[in-house]
């Protein structure tokens, strides 16, 4: 899972401290850095830095903010590269559910966990997008990261996808994801039964090599995309972690059509 804001800030502060320490030895190679200045010179430089930071503490905040922006830019670039390299499996793999218009002009990919609260909240936005945009293609990738029950549910959901039509699977998906409270294997089987799934076949397929391979593929893609939470999204070349409200999702879809990018 992601670092807490306080821990992330601590790491950034350490990075800033390291950068400031590097100033002392600017121009010296690592092997000669210790001999670049005398002890008296080092003490003098350290005092200058200390006094400057005490007098101008906002510099630390500015440095942390600059570092954060640099890290975010690097993360976005890394994810975009992964989207390009693995685009076919992300968008057109046989190991995924496709709802909405299968021939749509824009594809929105969601990596989700059936026990993820933010995924439950995002369901309404995804459903509204499908209802209001007849040209939208939505890919659902089961990414169970919230414990053993989520893994069990993912096995049942993958098996359900193998035998249900896209429309029936979408009905199953909405029913299961809108279930209140914690979801386990029995809730998944009950939801599948309600939409007409063959339960004997379902339980057999849930333990199949095909199901294992499908979930491993999603996990591998998530690792390449550096997805550490759910929901996570891919649209165009952009990959985003975290819940997005309807307006933001719609804007990204509209932007793809407008300029070919999720963010114009």
TrEMBL record:
Keywords tagged on the record: Coiled coil, Disulfide bond, Oxidoreductase, Redox-active center, Signal
InterPro entries reported in the protein's UniProt record: DSBA-like_thioredoxin_dom, ScsC_N, Thioredoxin-like_sf, Thioredoxin_CS, Thioredoxin_domain
Oxidoreductase found in the keyword field: yes
Coiled coil stretches, renumbered: 185-219
CDD domains, per the entry: DsbA_Com1_like
One Pfam short name: DSBA
Signal sequence range: 1-28
SUPFAM superfamilies (alphabetical): Thioredoxin-like
Occurrences of domain Thioredoxin (ranges): 67-258
Name the UniProt record assigns to this protein: Outer membrane protein
Organism this protein belongs to: Methylocystis iwaonis
């Amino acid at each position: 899972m992601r670092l807490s804001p306080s821990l992330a800030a601590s790491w950034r502060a350490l990075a800033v401290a390291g950068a400031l320490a590097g100033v002392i030895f600017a121009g010296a190679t690592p092997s000669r850095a210790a001999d670049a200045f005398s002890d008296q010179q080092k003490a003098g430089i350290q005092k200058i830095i200390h006094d400057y930071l005490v007098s101008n503490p906002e510099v630390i905040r500015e440095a942390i903010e600059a570092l954060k922006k640099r890290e975010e830019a690097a993360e976005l670039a890394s994810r975009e590269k992964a989207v390009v390299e693995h685009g076919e499996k992300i968008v057109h793999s046989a190991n995924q559910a496709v709802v909405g218009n299968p021939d749509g002009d824009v594809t929105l990919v969601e990596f989700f966990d059936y026990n993820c609260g933010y995924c439950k909240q995002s369901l309404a936005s995804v459903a509204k997008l499908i209802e209001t945009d007849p040209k939208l293609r939505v890919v659902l990738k089961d990414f169970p990261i919230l414990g053993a029950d989520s893994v069990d549910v993912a096995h049942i959901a993958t098996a359900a996808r193998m035998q249900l039509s896209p429309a029936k699977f979408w009905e199953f998906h909405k029913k299961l994801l809108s279930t209140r409270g914690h979801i386990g294997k029995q809730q998944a089987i009950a939801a599948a039964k309600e939409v007409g799934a063959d339960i004997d076949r379902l339980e057999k397929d849930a333990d199949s090599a095909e199901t294992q391979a499908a979930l491993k593929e999603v996990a591998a893609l998530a690792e390449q995309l550096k997805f550490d939470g759910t929901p996570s999204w891919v649209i165009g070349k952009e990959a985003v972690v975290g819940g997005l409200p309807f307006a933001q999702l719609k804007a990204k879809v509209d932007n793809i059509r407008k300029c070919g990018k999720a963010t114009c």
